[in-house]
Model the fold of this input.
Amino acid sequence: MQHGRIKPFPKHFLWGASTSAYQVEGAWNEDGKGLSVMDVFQHPKDVTDFKVASDHYHRYKEDVALFAEMGLKAYRFSISWTRIYPNGVGEINQKGIDFYNRLINELRKYKIEPIVTIYHFDLPYALQKKGGWSNRETVDAFENYAKTLFENFGDRVKYWLTINEQNMMILFGEVLGVVDRSMKNTKKELYQQSHHMFLAQAKAMILCHKMIPDAKIGPAPNISSIYPISPKPEDVLAAHTFSSLRNWLYLDAAVFGRYNSVAWSYFEKNGCTPMIQDGDMEILKEAKPDFIAFNYYNTMTVGASNPSEATKNKNVDQQMVLDEPGFYKGYENPNLDKTAFGWEIDPVGLRMTLRELNERYHLPLLITENGLGTYDTLEEGDVINDDYRIEYLKKHIEQCQLAISDGVNLIGYCPWSAIDLVSTHQGISKRYGFIYVNRDEFDLKDLRRIPKKSFYWYKKVIASNGEDLSNN
Ligand code: BGP
Done:
């Protein structure tokens, strides 16, 4: 559909950028912080771990000053659970509270809206050792942790995200390092974990509304439209099945407080229906998100799959599409270009995804991740000419504006990432940031910050409220 007149971005649009604690902070064992599952994650030999990351814990003032210079209206970051509760529960670590107070105050000083993710992959290792999300006690630990955050930061933080990419943790937990690889991680176990996360999320949403009436809270899954590989009805049906399991399962539970029927029949067929206790569904129903935050990198393409095909976990060019014999099978999309790391690039798919979300849930939408992970070159004179990143972001922002013209209530765009950080499983060489961090995988160099060309471009985009996307 082509619009005669394209609508402008709303006046108070949240032009932002994102990070997560374990990927940017470093200081993995300082000031009383406990171990998280990401600290014990077994990294591939050729990539760095998260111990120093971008050293944001020590350099946050300098970083926030740069965010302000870029003109960010919002900064989406996560709180490290084990800085607040080193063991997940028990004694509060005051130094952890102090750090986030300093960070939030610094952001407020520059009128940058903090958008806080309560939990971004880094479950306390002490809880993992007690069964992690398989253990129902983790639900209470999460609620208690969320309560502490609302008590301490609720006066200044008005946008909260519950759980980052619950769907990716359930579908690809071993790749992301969030589940205990020594456990069996059967589907039954994983969907039980997912049920516990739904409960934890619902309890946090209810609590947030009680404790901070003027705050908004929502889930933050990874959502993307799913294309059928052909118009063959079986392929279209497979795309619907995959979308019901990958996307809508997580949002239907968060928004409507129910399991969708396709997901439920998949559970029955696979013997993995979660154990639901009396009162659980009432809690899910009572919790109402104020908006949907979501991460978008690419669409996926699937087709029908024969039940007799061999089971295999497929990673279509690292894009994480599963083959599920009898349900769906992942394909590459021949119409799309790819990044240097093999991720398909699909700006139009973002418009499609926004439309689907809008039609299904009728809630304000906030993009909390979208960006290009690739190699950057530091040139003579501290210059990084990342025109490819500008091109990527420009095309996605254009589609956001078209989606707004389609009637979507999009309230903000927070690309990944505000500053270079360590990729979840592919090291620091896979860079996403507007700001370069001078380090390599294993050589920490001087960690100095250098604005990239995209920094100045995004500054202009924000200053013009999305009207000027030109690259010059
Ligand atoms: C999302 C995560 C982020 C980030 C991003 C990019 O799934 O929420 O934490 O890692 O993907 O992925 P990667 O780091 O693998 O390139």
